[in-house]
Amino acid sequence: MLQKDFDLSGQNNVHRLTVFITADGLFYSCFTADGTLVRHHSYTNLLFSSRDTVQSIVVDPVLRAQYERIVVVVLTSNDQQLAVPDDELIKMIPGLEYKHIHMEKLPGQLAYNYYGLTPHQESLLDELFGHDNYIVHNFLFALTSYYLGINKPMMHLHFEDTTITLYVQKNGILQFYNTFRYLGPKDVLYFTLAACQLTGIDTSQDSVVVSGWMEGDTSIYKKLNGYIKHLSIMDDADFRIATTQGHKPFYYFTHYAGQLCVL
């Protein structure tokens, strides 16, 4: 069992907050002014439309505190990328018709990403922080921002508890992005190798980086390692964390990347 949540904020001055939202979860991290992660907390198995299930979030004093910067990173399964903005076309995309649609130009890309928050998710964020007091980015925006200027072919695999997000970039250009639910190693291997084949990633030469809730000794990682020569766990020296008690920076990539989006 991975060690996810911890709290050393009482020993440090907290200046920044990152909130990571999925379809049924909300996770937040607190950072010092120099970008050191000092707290992480998870809310899982949420039904955002149910007031009862989000009540503990609404009254959480950490989320009600004041911060210099609040960044929300959203992971959705129905992102749509277009070469030019087309708000009318997006309205016809299944899955977005009942959501509050957001659009943002991807850093370093000739592409615009459309994604949606449910009205209940957006109302919760407004209630917590005030409508104009937080910045929202899609996870794809965070990834393209993080890998801005990287020209070599590469793949990034990010794991949440039941989903894997695949990101492929070549010559600095986004080639593939999608999120899938998985049950085990065979699912992950299938999605990964299919994306490699589709985008021309060479599993014997190109690098594949892993982040999120994954470790090198798991059956999933070992399965991938049997097919991908240059597979590695993310190691970024700029990702500072206040504890080493089983909590590793690459677990919290979405939160670090969210903070880097606005630097």
CATH class designation? Alpha Beta
Work out the oligomeric state of the chains in this entry: single chain
> What order do the SSEs take from the amino end to the carboxyl end, as H and E?
EEEEHHEEHEEHEHEEEHEHEH
Number of self-contained structural domains: 1
Count up the helices.
8
CATH topology: Nucleotidyltransferase, domain 5
Task: Assign the CATH architecture.
Answer: 2-Layer Sandwich
Mean of residue pLDDT values: 93
How many whole angstroms does the radius of gyration measure?
18 Å
In CATH, what is the homologous superfamily? Protein of unknown function DUF3822, C-terminal domain
Q: List low-confidence stretches.
A: none
Largest sheet: 6 strands, mixed
Query: In one word, what is the shape?
Result: globular
- Helical coverage, percent range: 10-25%
What percent strand? 25-35%
Account of the 3D structure:
The protein has helices spanning 51-58, 61-64, 87-90, 119-129, 139-146, 185-199, 219-225, 253-260; strands at 6-7, 16-21, 26-31, 37-43, 69-74, 80-82, 100-105, 112-117, 135-138, 154-159, 163-170, 173-181, 207-212, 230-233. It is of the alpha/beta class and 263 residues long. The protein has one domain: Protein of unknown function DUF3822, C-terminal domain (Nucleotidyltransferase, domain 5, 2-Layer Sandwich), CATH 3.30.420.260. Strands 1-4-3-2-5-9 form a 6-stranded mixed sheet. A 5-stranded mixed sheet has the order 12-11-10-13-14, sandwiched between helices. Strands 6-8-7 form a 3-stranded antiparallel sheet. Strand 7 (100-105) and strand 8 (112-117) form a beta hairpin.
